[in-house]
């Protein structure tokens, strides 16, 4: 493997139980229905998990400029063919590749014949921007892929980020739901013990929806790459959390 980016593999997952808020209804409103012997207590519980990223997202490509649009497009297409071939040779499946951006735009330069004279916009040529997006679960190949792309002619790297695949995110949430509910039950039991009351059932339970954690960026800005050299890239961990609100039915012990 060429010298260049290095990947620090993820750490083992570590489950963290977060603090909860506890709300107990006033005695005057504790009866669920008129004549009922049970009251209710509402508890919010949450749990979080640090999960090692299992998905890498990369965006890099080629900017080309020429006097005519046709020349710029031809130069860009030729360069991008080499970049794509190098990325595939580095071990990336074609299904993990997509075009992130393609644009052809005129390039103007400002000219002013003398001070105070009108400024003219003269057409200098055309620029083609072509960005390739790589979405891969092979984190150990990120350094090789970026090095290969730059060596093949890619002159810009816009983004390297790490995140969770939908499958891993869902599996993590399922694990956390059970922990968050147990956390809420435990807090309710602590609050009820001094009152000589106990949980006798569940009236209502809701799960607060949380968006999938955002990507962790290894490179937060565009880099114009002249040589195959870049700092180490760390995949890191992603935080996943779940919050539940449980209304327990309660009665005397």
Report on this structure.
- With 253 residues, the chain is an alpha+beta fold.
- It has two domains: 104 residues, no CATH class; 109 residues, Alpha-Beta Plaits, CATH 3.30.70.2970.
- 23% of the residues lie in helices and 44% in strands.
- It contains three helices and 13 strands, in the order βββββαββαβαβββββ.
- Strands 5, 6, 7, 8, 10 and 11 form a six-stranded antiparallel β-sheet that branches. Strands 2, 3, 4, 9 and 13 form a five-stranded antiparallel β-sheet that branches.
- Strand 6 and strand 7 form a beta hairpin.
- Helix 1 packs antiparallel against helix 2.
- The radius of gyration is 29 Å and the shape is elongated.
- The N terminus is likely disordered.
Characteristics:
five-stranded antiparallel sheet, 2 domains, 253 residues, alpha+beta, 13 strands, six-stranded antiparallel sheet
Distance between the termini: 68 Å
Name of the CATH superfamily of the largest domain: Protein of unknown function (DUF541), domain 2
Q: Count of helical segments?
A: 3
Task: State the helical fraction.
Answer: 10-25%
- Unreliable spans are 1-36, 219-231
Outline the biggest β-sheet.
6 strands, antiparallel
Known CATH architecture of the largest domain: 2-Layer Sandwich
Q: So what's the oligomer here?
A: single chain
CATH topology of the largest domain: Alpha-Beta Plaits
In CATH, what is the class of the largest domain?
Alpha Beta
H-E string:
EEEEEHEEHEHEEEEE
Overall structural domain count: 2
């Amino acid at each position: 493997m060429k010298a260049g980016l290095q990947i620090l593999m993820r750490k083992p997952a570590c489950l963290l139980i977060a603090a909860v808020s506890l709300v107990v209804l006033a005695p005057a409103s504790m009866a669920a229905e008129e004549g009922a012997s049970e009251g209710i207590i509402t508890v919010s519980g949450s749990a979080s998990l640090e999960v090692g990223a299992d998905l890498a997202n990369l965006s890099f490509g080629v900017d080309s400029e020429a006097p005519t649009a046709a020349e710029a497009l031809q130069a860009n297409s030729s360069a991008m063919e080499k970049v794509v071939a190098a990325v595939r040779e580095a071990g990336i499946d074609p299904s993990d590749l997509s075009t992130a951006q393609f644009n052809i735009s005129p390039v103007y330069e400002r000219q002013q014949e003398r001070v105070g004279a009108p400024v003219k916009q003269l057409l200098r040529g055309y620029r083609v921007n072509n960005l390739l997006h790589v979405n891969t679960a092979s984190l150990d190949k990120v350094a090789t892929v970026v090095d290969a792309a730059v060596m093949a002619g890619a002159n810009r790297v816009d983004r390297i980020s790490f995140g969770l695949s939908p499958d891993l995110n869902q599996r993590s949430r399922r694990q956390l739901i059970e922990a968050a509910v147990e956390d809420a039950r435990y807090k309710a039991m602590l609050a009820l013990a001094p009152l000589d009351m106990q949980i006798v059932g569940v009236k209502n339970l809701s799960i607060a929806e949380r968006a999938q954690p955002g990507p962790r960026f290894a490179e937060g800005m565009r880099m114009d790459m002249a040589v195959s050299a870049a700092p180490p890239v760390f995949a890191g961990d992603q935080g996943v959390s779940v919050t539940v609100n449980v209304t327990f039915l309660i009665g005397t012990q």
